[in-house]
Amino acid sequence: MDILKEAAIDPAPLADKRVAIIGYGNQGRAQALNLHDSGIDVVVGLRGGSGSTNEVEAAGLRTALVEKAVASAEVVMLLAPDEIHGALYKEIEPHLRQGTALGFSHGLSVRFGFVSPRADLDVFLLAPKGPGTALRSLYKEGKGMLALWAVHQDATGNAKDIALAYGRAIGCARAGLISSSFAEEAEADLFNEQGVVWGGVPELLIAGFETLVDGGVSPEVAYLECVGELHLIAELIEARGIAGMRDVISNTAELGALLGGKRIIDESVRARMRDILDEVRAGRFADDLRREEANGYSRLEAARSEAHGALIEKTRKRLSGEN
Ligand SMILES: NC(=O)c1ccc[n+]([C@@H]2O[C@H](COP(=O)([O-])OP(=O)(O)OC[C@H]3O[C@@H](n4cnc5c(N)ncnc54)[C@H](OP(=O)(O)O)[C@@H]3O)[C@@H](O)[C@H]2O)c1
């Protein structure tokens, strides 16, 4: 698979175009500022009464109401939360010019049918593989974040060139642009969120913390062991890979990891991971997300308040001097 770098990408397809960024949250802010600093004509589309207006204007960016921003642009990037893409697309569709390039940073809403783009549009994916805060700080350091790109619909024949030029302008091509598809990106991302980094890892930390506390260890020591060392392994894996991480830890830690790791992540865990992947592909999570939005995010709110009241969080605050 090719990893395209900046030097191999022509910036021209974006040079004479206006880009409307819809949504100024985590990704919207970073992408709008990076584009602007790369010399691209950017307008940030905000809903009426948006609390972000002052911040966007203070950053030196032009703002307009969503439908005005969309109507004025040749490239429109949907960077509002995924679960509202369906309603948002219906609102903006009448304002999209013929042949506009419609971009996404996650394949979900197209892969699972929240959005069915008009046939005359180019539809591309440029998905930075990390949070907007890091996308922005890397750009300012002269670096970039790896991103996946894909074309869902190529009405004008220019969709690929625009996607790559967009990835270059937000700085991702400094690290590399990797070819994917809306389905692959969406399914792999949703799988990881549930089964690995965002779902699996925190639950592993909590289970380890609670096992030690139930076994008579003080919450402070349990926290330092099970949670406090996480950044160390993350940094080592980032810098050296999993094999390289093992090269630099003690023989004691390495043997412990060898004996314990596969007992914890055994075949039953892999079987449940396969179940999660099957469910994601069948659209079950996309249905859950739609339902959650329709129910006013009640399940997420309840989980947030439970997490903030848990012993592991109280212990973190004590250790960090927050209370
Ligand atoms: N979070 C990340 O770093 C990350 C990483 C990779 C990909 N992505 C993808 O990037 C996209 C954006 O995610 P995000 O986390 O950046 O979103 P977010 O921070 O939750 O987006 C919030 C922004 O969306 C705006 N918004 C909400 N509802 C709107 C509506 N009905 N009309 C217009 N604007 C509306 C908000 O407007 P107000 O200012 O008016 O409240 C706010 O500016 C998603 O597709 C996501 O999967 C995100």
List the helices and strands and how they pair.
Elements: E1 3-4, H1 12-15, E2 18-22, H2 26-37, E3 41-46, H3 53-58, E4 62-65, H4 66-71, E5 75-78, H5 85-92, E6 101-104, H6 108-111, E7 122-128, H7 132-140, E8 147-153, H8 159-169, E9 177-179, H9 182-195, H10 200-214, H11 219-226, H12 230-248, H13 251-264, H14 267-281, H15 284-294, H16 298-309, H17 311-320
Parallel strand pairs: 2-3, 2-5, 3-4, 5-6, 6-7, 8-9
Antiparallel strand pairs: 1-9, 7-8
Helix pairs in contact: 2-7, 9-14, 10-11
This protein binds NADP nicotinamide-adenine-dinucleotide phosphate.
Descriptive report:
55% of the residues lie in helices and 13% in strands. It has a nine-stranded mixed sheet. The chain starts with a strand and ends with a helix. It is built from 17 helices and nine strands. Helix 9 packs across helix 14. The longest helix has 19 residues. The structure holds NADP nicotinamide-adenine-dinucleotide phosphate. NADP nicotinamide-adenine-dinucleotide phosphate binds next to helix 2 and strand 7.
